[in-house]
């Protein structure tokens, strides 16, 4: 395909995918959202966002590829590094700016906001203006800022705020020493969780262990982490699994490493035929019982949920259940630890049991390899001339891969890497359910 023809094809993909997204918003709410509005659109909280995410994946990928092709290379190169959004978001989250602005629906002047949070006003104005340029907050008049649909995500009541906080604090801390860990002879070739960049930085402050040890040392920190897992439902569209996978055919589900119930709470409300077992460490289950008593008391009263402490490295989950679900568990651990988890899960399986691993599946940039995986296992490949992995449209999985490296010395995996792990554990891949961001891989006992 000639260069100009590729650009025209990308323009067509941009136009088509944008119109698809507009149509979906109109179908779900009768209108399309505005950057200025504060109220969420009905589609924002939809359980099944696969169609919207499919459109956005193509839109973002095609737009970025077109822009990078047409812009001078120096322009694009500096844009990769001159990014301080995270530093400004850290200010907004730490100072609860969104919560404050709720009391000023018409906006508040930066001088007045400065008095409330005790940050020099001219510096604060620069932070707010950068975020507003990104679409987070509105500058309704000169130096007067108000909330909008995007900034409301940072409200204390929104679980996504806790995931944002995890990135601006812990991931940023690990990123600051990442290069050092690559050159330090002690850590350069290590995949031990205790040698993750985040813990490398903590070691300098006298803090030992691995990431989850660090989380458990402070109740507020641990609770925020578990709330951030609920935020993944909205970030990744994870709850689409509830409508795409046939849970109505099964009666028992084991949520392995289920935390406070980011997945199983919505499951209990959507599929009341299912009895759920939540496995996690005792301290996580204390928080889980409290949240279930408040958010889904009927499931507790009807004995549709049970909480059982489990160390999945050393113990076997409840045996003989229909479904064993692991969401964002395997990606937290290097290969050795991941293999231990899967082998213990395999020991629990009955003849008809299924294992669902819900994680990012890192896509190949080789179109030849991607098309092989598409034809044999159903992995979606982007249309040409888009990069086969959708380029920037799937960028979050590659950023998440770095997050796993920074926090845990772990990784997101390719399909081939999952196959190596699962085969060694005695599992057979049956199907890949592509949910337009993460995937659900369905396994049976080999």
From TrEMBL:
Coiled coil: none annotated. One of its GO terms (biological process) is methylation. It comes from the Eukaryota. It holds the Pfam family Methyltransf_2. Keywords: Methyltransferase, S-adenosyl-L-methionine, Transferase. One of its GO terms (molecular function) is O-methyltransferase activity. PANTHER family: O-METHYLTRANSFERASE CICE, PUTATIVE (AFU_ORTHOLOGUE AFUA_4G14580)-RELATED. This is O-methyltransferase C-terminal domain-containing protein. It comes from Rhizopogon vesiculosus.
């Amino acid at each position: 395909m000639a260069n100009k023809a590729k650009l025209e094809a990308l323009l067509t993909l941009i136009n088509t995918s944008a119109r698809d997204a507009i149509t979906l918003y109109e179908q779900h709410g009768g209108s399309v959202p505005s950057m200025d509005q504060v109220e969420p659109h009905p589609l924002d909280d939809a359980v099944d966002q696969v169609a919207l995410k499919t459109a956005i994946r193509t839109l973002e990928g095609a737009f970025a590829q077109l822009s990078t092709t047409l812009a001078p290379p120096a322009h694009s190169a500096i844009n990769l590094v001159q990014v301080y959004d995270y530093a400004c978001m850290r200010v907004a989250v730490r100072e609860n700016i969104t919560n404050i602005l709720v009391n000023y629906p018409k906006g508040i002047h930066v001088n007045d906001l400065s008095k409330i949070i005790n940050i020099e006003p001219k510096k604060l104005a620069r932070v707010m203006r950068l975020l507003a340029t990104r679409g987070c907050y509105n500058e309704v008049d000169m130096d007067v800022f108000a909330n909008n649909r995007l900034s409301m995500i940072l409200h204390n009541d929104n679980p996504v705020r806790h995931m944002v906080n995890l990135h601006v604090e812990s991931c940023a801390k690990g990123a600051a020493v990442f290069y050092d860990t690559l050159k330090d002879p002690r850590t350069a070739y290590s995949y031990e969780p205790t040698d993750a960049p985040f813990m490398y930085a903590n070691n300098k402050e006298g803090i030992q262990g691995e990431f989850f040890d660090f989380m458990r040392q402070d109740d507020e920190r641990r609770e925020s982490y578990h709330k951030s897992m609920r935020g993944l439902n909205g970030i990744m569209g994870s709850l689409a699994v509830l409508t795409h996978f046939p849970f109505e055919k099964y009666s028992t589900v084991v949520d392995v490493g289920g935390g406070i119930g980011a997945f199983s709470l919505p499951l209990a409300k959507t599929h009341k035929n299912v009895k759920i077992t939540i496995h996690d460490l005792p301290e996580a289950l204390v928080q889980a019982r409290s949240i279930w008593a408040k958010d889904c008391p009927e499931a507790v009263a009807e004995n549709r949920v049970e909480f059982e402490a489990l160390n999945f490295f050393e113990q076997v989950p409840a045996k003989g259940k229909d479904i064993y679900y692991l969401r964002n568990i395997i990606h937290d651990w290097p290969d050795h630890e991941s293999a231990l988890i899967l082998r213990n899960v395999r020991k629990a399986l009955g003849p008809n049991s299924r294992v669902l691993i819900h994680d990012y599946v890192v896509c190949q940039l080789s179109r030849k390899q991607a098309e092989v995986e598409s034809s044999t296992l159903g992995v979606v490949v982007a249309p040409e001339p888009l990069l086969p992995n959708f380029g920037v449209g799937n960028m979050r999985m590659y950023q998440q891969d770095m997050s796993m490296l920074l926090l845990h010395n772990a990784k997101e995996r390719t399909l081939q890497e999952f196959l190596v792990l699962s085969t060694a554990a005695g599992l057979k891949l049956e199907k890949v359910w592509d949910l337009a961001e993460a995937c659900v891989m369905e396994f049976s006992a080999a």
